[in-house]
């Protein structure tokens, strides 16, 4: 695994420069994130445990829950699995073509490739690393081959972020609401990661012009950063207080 051009640490994002409307939306998302975790903790449950319940033995690389989670109205999708060291596992979040805003189109390199097409042309938005207690520790982006997605330019991926929403109760209403809110709470970091993803891809292509960069098995994680829910909410509150 090679990590290139990681996005800035959350502490380096200048929240005071964000529009107040965006800060208020992030603050509301922070309340939602905290509330989802609170109601689960009251009964000794957590975000990850909700998607693993009733799924049998936890097996490396297997998608949980089986068949992934998909919202037929928003066309958002996610699954949880494990294969990286230093974490319990991670969520992969996607948006399918029918849920994307107008004008989004696969990168020109998609032409002639055996990538998902039409309504199945999904885009990976972000991955959320989780610890063994079911709490988030980081965000990262991946190369195309990792998730078998259709590659979209970063500007389009960023426009997709507000459209990610899982608005039903399977396999867990708190987990679905939590994931939806996490994308909104950490949107500045996610946008920075997506930009860094594209920068890393371009640098890799220039360094190895004879390789198919999208299928390079030595190029897996393109950008990554640690996150802290409490620190994020505090920074938002301080920015709004100004």
Automatic annotation (TrEMBL):
<feature type="domain" description="DUF6969">
    <location>
        <begin position="28"/>
        <end position="227"/>
    </location>
</feature>
<dbReference type="InterPro" id="IPR054242">
    <property type="entry name" value="DUF6969"/>
</dbReference>
<dbReference type="Pfam" id="PF22308">
    <property type="entry name" value="DUF6969"/>
</dbReference>
<protein>
    <recommendedName>
        <fullName>DUF6969 domain-containing protein</fullName>
    </recommendedName>
</protein>
